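Data follows
____________
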Amino acid sequence: MIQSQSKQFKALMVGVVMGYAITCIVFLGYSMLITYTSMTERNLPMVVAVTTLLSVMVAGFDAAKGAENRGWLWGMGAGLVYIIILTLLMMSVLQRFAVDTRTITSIILALAGGGMGGILGINMRRSR
């Protein structure tokens, strides 16, 4: 039982790392587009929302692949870990960080996206 939980925790953390890898790649690409083209930051909120959703879905998918059951719950856990880390980073970087509707929306998006990724991950695992 303990070995299974350790394996599951490792899968969850690998999922979160993969989610952040995707986030970094997308943000780096978008920042390069803004820097070297005439593109503006006008679409930044949409890019952040879509990137967050995609990243937590991947994190949830990876976390649930190691689960025996309740993939949605492991996926939501990965989404929660992802958004907690992101929130802590934002709190340390931004001088005036406040919990507002955008923050609440990000938390809901992370939980929902992680849950959806978890459902897909556990079903892909079972279909093999």
About this structure: The first helix runs from residue 2 to 36. DSSP finds four helices and no strands in the chain. Residues 2-126 form one domain.
